From TrEMBL:
Pfam families: DUF5995 (PF19458). This is DUF5995 family protein. It comes from Actinomycetospora straminea.
Amino acid sequence: MADSPKANAKALAKLSEPRPDDVPKVIRALERIADRAAKLPPQGAEDGVASFSRLYHQITVDVLDGYRQGGLFTCPGDFIIELDIAFARRYLDAIVAHADGSGAPRCWQVLFDRRQEDTAPWRFAAAGVNAHVNFDLAFALLDVWERHRVPLGTVEQQYADYLAINTIFERNMDELCNRFDAPWSDVGGDGSFFDRAGNVLGDILVTGTRDLAWDFADRMWRHRGSSSYRTVPEATLDLLTTGLATALI
């Protein structure tokens, strides 16, 4: 028997709990969420949550592989692992908040509300990246910084590892664009000028938005003595990111 939207949302919330405390658990949760989301008709595998979760799963697998192989991340204290976990928890929390009615951030709610529309998978994936990078990432950084009174390495060491994630996106951009049927990947075939140009543009967008997230987190962190140092900027950023999400899907 096929899932109803409400039943599927509750199943996804169950798969999002308990919150993972290591990256392998994050990977398993994302895989299961993608699989269960794909069971919701009529979109199936092209469902919005399934599309974004598949993308997120692949990037997280590559981050863990890069960490285990050594050389890519050098900051002491496993900063990048801590950030990966804090980052994933925000997506999982949004899934739970949507299912129980407590209120997911509006930028995520756009994806959850429209996940069954007849929309190209790359648009769903882009909407998820928009919510997760443009909104969640800055606050995931704050979560890590707040958790450790003794910082995990210097600011320079943390930022170097943060930038190293861009390398993973760059390595995967062509495959990801092809997998999610980005329109430029079909013009002239794989490796064409349009395909390469689209991949470069994707790299620039990811790099630029990740830089903005770091800068935004750094600015908030300077005002951490204020009780509202997170809440006021969070509402503003959610509003802006929601506008982008609406434009994408």
